[in-house]
Write a structure and sequence with these properties.
CATH topology of the domain at 111-140 and 147-329 and 337-349: Beta Polymerase, domain 2
Helix content: 40-55%
GO cellular component, one term: membrane
Structural class: alpha+beta
Largest sheet: 8 strands, mixed
Membrane topology: Single-pass type I membrane protein
Number of strands: 12
Family: Belongs to the ITPRIP family.
Radius of gyration: 29 Å
InterPro entries: ITPRIP-like, Mab-21_HhH/H2TH-like, MAB21L/cGLR
Mean pLDDT: 79
Low-confidence stretches: 1-6, 70-85, 140-144, 512-534
Distance between the termini: 32 Å
Keywords: Membrane, Signal, Transmembrane, Transmembrane helix
């Protein structure tokens, strides 16, 4: 994808006019201070040519502004909220709105591949040094190095930045840091989806019981329990009479080990960047902040935040991660059935399978398919819908329409069709975006169920390759089941309102990033989650 740089006439012409005006004033000051030596010949006004040029530039700027205002005035308007057809693509057939949508994508959504590539390479170098230092360092504080957790030595880059659908700025990344278990310890993962009494938010979680690894020597269970007791005491909790690996205890060790590893490489990184580590507590993984150094004169001097997520490999590219990803209820201990403990819950990461699925779709897509561009615009539509909401409503809106939910919507629509066909080319961009919005709204209103693309019924197992036994036997996971009916209905109404007002929103918030944004009216800022217009 090539990089396009456009000249912003709104800034260029005022700057040129101001510069010429300043030159005219400077000329007159110098002419007045020069006295008789600066007197021009008879009948000649030396200041007239520069003054004429300045006036012509000013008139050109005024004409361009008038042309822009006339063009915006005659663009077709958006459909009314009370129209009979909630989703109508007729306005996307108008050339004016196609221009608006394309302009908004270029100025507000699309990332420069050059900047994104530099950012990913910088993150890879910094995280690589940190992980290698963690592997060389002391594996833990448990007596006996063979019974301690340790870094495996590699890291796995996941998320939208590595799947070509990140938007706006390349300033946040997700990285999995695989951990190495002691040789005497093996895991027996189990999905909680089949638990008879369990809140929907926990049905995608896993628990990992300890078990003895297969041994040709046939060691007895009593000896194994005695030998791995230091590891179990440091990293495990009791769940229904059996020792389970604790995500909370592993996360706590991971954060402290990262701090020690960072202290060993901080000095070597000082010449390139400033690095700090912010612990995430027991609810979030730690975040590595990479700040540009004052002596760094590179072309992409961005401040970046990298979430470092501890992961335990289950096999076939599937990882258990700590802590489980949101959404979770506000009081999880009260929602868990008797015998289960929140510290033992793990989330599952299937980023490798999802990347394989996207590659499989790309191989079968028609040339010029715009499905990733539609996903980027769907994320931008979500961000536009959050404008005008208070902090609590905006947080709830972002949790329901998370980036993972929106990606799953795209995968579900594409898998229903088999592959992106001719209908997913650039000429049908508005229609394809409308199809995604309509399917998402139907999922919010329970007309369709938005299953996890790997754990769902049928899923995409044939396209992504083999899966571990724990995932093959897992129950289907509905990504929106954790939210109650009222929250989903409000989100669906807000989504419809945002879609119907899309032309006005593109006009109001489109354009170059450095232009000032007009804040929403006070009446809009005080309206609720449903009634407030973005």
């Amino acid at each position: 994808m090539s990089v396009h740089y456009t000249l912003n006439l709104r800034v260029f012409w005022p700057l040129v006019t101001g510069l010429c005006t300043a030159l005219v004033c400077l000329y007159h000051v110098l002419r007045g201070s020069g006295g008789a030596r600066a007197e021009p010949p008879d009948g000649v006004d030396g200041g007239f040519p520069l003054l004429k040029v300045a006036v012509l530039l000013l008139l050109s700027y005024v004409l361009l502004r008038c042309r822009h205002a006339v063009r915006q005035r005659f663009l077709p308007g958006s459909p009314r909220l009370g129209s009979h057809t909630a989703f109508s693509s007729r306005h996307f057939r108008e050339p004016g709105l196609s221009i608006l949508l394309e302009s908004y994508y270029e100025h507000e959504v699309r990332l420069s591949p050059h900047v994104l590539g530099h950012s990913k390479a910088h993150v890879s170098r910094i995280v690589g040094e940190l992980v290698r230092a963690g592997r060389r360092g002391s594996p833990g504080l448990i007596p006996g190095g063979e019974l301690a957790l340790a870094f495996r030595g590699d890291f796995i880059q996941v998320g939208s930045a590595y799947e070509q659908h990140k938007i706006r700025r390349p300033d946040s990344f997700d990285v999995l840091v695989p951990l190495r278990l002691p040789p005497l310890v093996a895991l027996e993962p189990r999905s909680l989806g089949e638990e008879p009494v369990l809140a929907p938010a926990f049905r995608g979680c896993f628990v990992c019981a300890l078990k003895a690894p297969p041994s040709p020597l046939g060691a007895s269970g009593g000896h194994w329990l005695r030998d791995c007791k230091p590891f179990a005491d440091a990293f495990c909790v009791d769940v229904r009479g059996r020792r389970h690996l604790s995500a909370t205890l592993v996360l706590r060790w991971f954060q402290s080990h990262l701090q020690r590893s960072l202290a060993t490489v901080r000095y070597s990184l000082e010449g390139r960047c400033r690095v700090t580590l912010t612990p995430g507590g027991l609810e979030q993984p730690p975040t590595l902040h990479i700040l540009p150094c004052r002596t760094d004169y590179g072309c992409c001097r961005l401040s970046m935040a990298v979430r470092l997520i501890p992961a335990v490999h289950l096999g076939d590219g599937v990882f258990l991660v700590a802590p489980p990803p949101p959404p979770l209820p506000s009081a999880p201990l009260l929602e868990l059935p008797e015998g289960l403990r929140a510290e033992a819950l793990w989330g599952v990461n299937t980023a490798r399978q999802e990347q394989k699925l996207l590659s499989w779709l790309q191989e079968r897509a028609a040339p010029g398919a715009c499905y990733l561009k539609c996903l980027q615009l769907l994320k931008a539509l979500r961000d536009l819908g959050a404008r005008g909401l208070d902090s609590a409503a905006a947080t709830q809106w972002g949790r329901i329409l998370s980036s993972y939910v929106l990606k799953t919507v795209l995968l579900a629509v594409l898998l229903r069709k088999g592959a992106p066909g001719q209908g997913w080319d650039e000429e049908h961009l508005g229609k394809c975006l409308e199809e995604l919005v309509q399917f998402l709204r139907d999922c919010l209103l329970r007309r369709h169920t938005l299953f996890h693309c790997v754990l769902g019924p049928g899923g995409a197992a044939a396209e992504v390759g083999p899966l571990p036994k724990a995932l093959r036997e897992a129950a289907p996971v509905d990504l929106l089941a954790a939210f109650d009916g009222q929250a989903r209905e409000l989100a669906a109404a807000r989504l419809l309102s945002t879609w119907q007002r899309l032309p006005q929103l593109l006009r109001a918030y489109g354009g170059p990033r450095y232009l000032a944004r007009c804040p929403p009216p006070r009446s809009q800022r005080t309206q609720g989650f449903l009634e407030g217009e973005p």
